[in-house]
Amino acid sequence: QVPPGRCALFDPAFSAREAAVLRALGLRLLPDNEEGKHGVEGSATLFYMVHCGKALYNNLLWSNWSPAALSKLVIIGNSFRGIEERLLSRILERDYSYIAKVLKGVEEVALPSHPRYLDTFNDTSVHWFPLDKLQELSPEVWDCVEEPMYQDCEDLEIIRKGD
């Protein structure tokens, strides 16, 4: 079991009441909107990111862009394969390049859907990044470490720091 104090949460839509309840439960709320740019800092970390925008996943990958860091990451969230299937490859590579680059280094298992929630949780998967698969990616994959900016992104699903 993970002690509640080791669980960090953030949602820019948390109300003051929700934040107070979460703190009362002993959970740690991150004080700032990191826009998904949260590093694992050497510890195995589970990110529960169901129904988040693609930019949040992309930012998380960028923040942990090394085989050592990514191999400590597990994401429960929207299917990366589904993202790949639904986006034109040029859009995926331009706007969400870290998702595009890591597709060959990720393992993904879809969570079973529930008949009652087919329209809500139909695309949720568990993702992890085995170190051996990441090390098989070409060295050039790890050279690009530019922070994602999303200037040309038409469907940006993220609440920015200044918003």
From TrEMBL:
Pfam family, one: SRR1
Residue stretches making up the SRR1-like domain: 6-128
Superkingdom field: Eukaryota
InterPro entries (UniProt xref): SRR1-like, SRR1L
GO cellular component: cytoplasm; nucleus
Family of the protein in this entry: Belongs to the SRR1 family.
PANTHER family: SRR1-LIKE PROTEIN (PTHR28626)
Protein name listed in UniProt: SRR1L protein
Organism this protein belongs to: Climacteris rufus (rufous treecreeper)
Taxonomic classification: Eukaryota, Metazoa, Chordata, Craniata, Vertebrata
